[in-house]
Amino acid sequence: MWSNDPSVNIEITENISGWFVQKSLPSNDGGFFISWLDNDNGFSLRMQKLDVLGNLQWPVGNPSTEGILVYQRYIEDYTVDYGLTLDNSGNAVVGIDSGWDEQGAIRPGGKAIACKVSPSGELLLGAEGLVISPQNDLVNIVSCKATTDGGVAFGWTFDASRILRVVKMDETGQLVWGDGQIYAAESITLNLGSLEPTEDGGVIFSLSYNTPQEPFTNKVGVPQTHDIVAGKLNARGEYAWNQQPKIIYLHSTLDLGISYDDGNSFVTQSDGKGGVIYSYGLQDNDNQWQVKLQHIDFQGNNLYEDIRVGVTDDTTRDHQEPYLGYNTTTGNAYVMWTSTTQDIEALTGLHAQCIDISGTKKWGNLGLELSGQISNSLSAQSVGMLPFENSVLASWIPPIDPTIFQYIRTAMISDDGAYLWADRTVDVKTEATETIRASGSVSIENYAAFVWEDNETKVKAQNINPDGTLGVEEI
Questions:
Q1: Are the CB atoms for 64 and 13 separated by under 8 Å?
Q2: Suppose 45 and one of 70, 221, 406, 409 were both cysteines; which one would form an S-S bond, judging by CB atoms 3.0 to 4.6 Å apart?
Q3: What is residue 9's DSSP assignment?
């Protein structure tokens, strides 16, 4: 059951060590699906279901921290990420690589696999899942996103990340686009940043790609920059937007390109109407970084008066690493980012901004300072921006010595920039352990839950209510 004590959180799994890559997904009954990779079992995918009170549900009849095995793999050394989405019927759908290739090598990659898990824990595509990639594709990370017509779109890059493929599975498990559509750019590598649903059962894919940097800076290690392009596929899998991709960002002589951190060069959110919100860090010719926001509608039109909007007018610090949330009802976008001083000692803090549908900065020209400037060795880390009605739940890991412990801190902030709780912030996790890869999502029952890798030994979770209280009253 959800705890009301931030020092005692729910234990999802007690796997002993390794790369969990845990994810959470709100379920249709007010609870959550939580998935993770079991490193002691070949990085196999396991999953747990929580009810609205935070009680473990799986295996049915005998719930435990083992959860259920969704897909068995036999990888030994390392793994890559996977996709998780909720279809229109309330099933959790996973896109994952099989972990072996046609020559029998056991490693990340191989085939693209779809798995579907019902709220009762039934494997609707069987224990081996459904192969969704053509035989010759040796896939990278498999992303997925539910479409508005009950299907799920999947995407991955292959051929040394030079080609992107997007396919679609309908609600019966049939591949309705066949081998799907491929996109190949005149570039070195592609990175699929996101899939977002369109208004008609299609999908918008957004990717970054390497291009020669112009003007070339002659700096060691910076011969490439990274631009963003998007393509729209309709419900039949055909290219929309006049059969052409849309340039979301193309570097020019006035800037040097977007950041490229472990393949995650930008973040997106669906606007709920078939369009996409983008946020990314942009480096100008003075080597200063600024966080930008861009919004395209379902037709590919820019909705802000300017093609892109800056989240702050500050030019004295570098602004990078955006975390994005979007309220589909109000049209307000929320961004959290890191800001770093441009001196030798390099102090870093966390800032946040609310931008309305017209591109106006609602929290002032500089935004709000959530965590003050402090040495990079103790800098705060963003967790998420979760929209509620006319407000947003900001969450981050405050700058406490990571060798001692790391909290997860939250604040509910109104669209006008006011802190809504008496003490401004509430910590949802205070146990003296290291916090890794934390993330959060909002239940349909109007509360939030966070999940994180705890001390490289466990996956834990904690809820918080809109009034800042933890736990629930048992019904």
A1: no
A2: 70
A3: P
